[in-house]
Amino acid sequence: MKIAILPGDGIGPEIIKQAKRVLDVLRADGIKIEIEHGAIGGAGYDADRDPLPESTLKLAREADAVLLGAVGGPQYDTLPRESRPEQGLLRIRKELNLFANLRPAVVFPELANASSLRPELVENLDLMILRELTGDIYFGQPRGRRSLDNGDEEGFDTMRYSSSEIDRIARVAFDVARKRNNRVCSVDKANVLDTSILWREVVTRVSRDYPEVELTHMYVDNAAMQLVRAPKQFDVMLTGNIFGDILSDEASMLTGSIGMLPSASMDENNKGLFEPIHGSAPDIAGKDLANPLATILSVSMMLRYSFGHLESADRIDNAVKLVLANGLRTKDIAQPGCKEVGTQQMGDAVIERLTQ
Ligand code: NAD
Fold it and tell me: Is the shortest distance between the CB of 86 and ligand 1 below 6 Å?
């Protein structure tokens, strides 16, 4: 396994340090892992005046998977747009052709109280949002603004998907469902949009290759409602880019703890970029306060989805579960009666569980 590690900015280096310790445990157990580090985001700008330096992109291209911390910080906010840290992230996703975004929303039983929903609605929630990342209205042409003959002005964008784009994301959804509970709910707006009618047809066609996976369809407005009404009804939710953008943020908030959620963006060959969903948290950077669990769980996703090492992935997930069950909490998920620990101590606890 050739892994490129890009710590980034703010709390990025602190949380990546703990995730790397997890990789070191696997390596000590005999799994062949090669690691190289690169700069991205503000760190890339500081090193090379570029948020995605050429050397980092080369490293990422040559790796089998990329582990990223987070990018951004107030000191970079006044830079011209193309030099801003976030551009590094957008560019690496595009350069690596990462079209499938996987965002699990998992609620560990001990943290059910952190959700804004009643605990019984989210306790043991485990749903996966699969969002198409490189098509749809965000990239469709034509787009722009134009003056109309009557002196009015309009803005316009084009929603579009080709059947091959839908086919390839649908296959990822069914493959992911096979590794979970064999259910896919495809979300669209086929009662209004032609793009969605095609979407529904292609997803249904692809489903015939996966007879063991149950496919259902849901309109996006209903899906938004069902996510806050009864989120446990879902296993894998498959969506296009714009619907997924909104639904994945809604789903992550069901868990109430941004420091706990990993994500993956994958290409056609299972190469992926794995990162926590949170940002660089400049307000707590360097204070040993950051929750490293989202990044550690990103390593687990990497093993599961890029390398098919399900056993190691389960091992990491279980170690995190046990640490939480033992009452250890970083400040962001602190609860009465639990022991509050820092970034390093949380890492220590996970490593201890992994090596027992
Ligand atoms: P943020 O996610 O960095 O922080 C939001 C809040 O959550 C803050 O109070 C922060 O302290 C807390 N938080 C986040 N991660 C945490 C963790 N692991 N442990 C404990 N607390 C945590 O979002 P923001 O404040 O809006 O953005 C800060 C910077 O991050 C900006 O420059 C933004 O552009 C960037 N950003 C980067 C990414 C990314 O790298 N993928 C994503 C979002 C924001």
Answer: yes
Query: What are the φ and ψ backbone dihedral angles of 3, each rounded to 5 degrees?
Result: -115, 130
Structure tokens at 238: 């498959």
Cβ–ligand 1 distance for 259 under 6 Å, the answer: yes
Q: By the 8 A CB rule, do 255 and 109 touch?
A: no
Task: Give me the count of residues in the chain.
Answer: 356
Q: Is residue 104 part of a domain?
A: no
Q: CA dihedral in degrees (128, 264, 196, 191; nearest 10)?
A: 30
25-52 pLDDT, tens digit each: 999 999 999 999 999 999 999 999 999 9
Q: Is the CB of 290 under 6 A from ligand 1?
A: yes
Nearest to 285 by CA among 11, 43, 70: 11
Range of the domain at 52: 1-99+272-356
Would you call 136 a catalytic residue per the annotation? no
Which of 280, 291, 295 to probe ligand 1 with, by most ligand atoms within 8 A of CB? 280
